[in-house]
Design a protein that fits this description.
Number of strands: 0
Shape: globular
Oligomer: single chain
Radius of gyration: 21 Å
Order of helices and strands: HHH
Strand content: under 5%
């Protein structure tokens, strides 16, 4: 019969609390898309839509961020915002 103690391996794993994780991150981590844990993922639908909108306003061909990663899309949005003054 199992005792239910942590000695039997059935105990919960210890993970840092969200505040501890946030405290250990550099303050500017959100400003550096290349450091995002999910930066290599595909862009979100909001990012794609925003890129398409900004590209139209800038008079550019609309790519909607096709082929970009999430981090690259964020950088592209910043470029387009500067270009369009948004």
């Amino acid at each position: 019969m199992k005792s239910g103690s942590s000695e039997d391996g059935g105990g919960a794993t210890s993970q840092p609390a969200p505040k501890e994780v946030a405290d250990s991150m550099p303050e500017d981590h959100l400003d550096k898309p290349s450091q995002w844990a999910t930066g290599g993922d595909a862009p979100t639908s909001k990012q794609k839509g925003f890129i398409a909108s900004l590209e139209r306003q800038a008079g550019e061909d609309v790519t909607a961020g096709e082929g970009l990663s999430k981090a690259e899309a964020s950088s592209r949005i910043q470029e387009l915002k500067e270009e369009t003054g948004k």
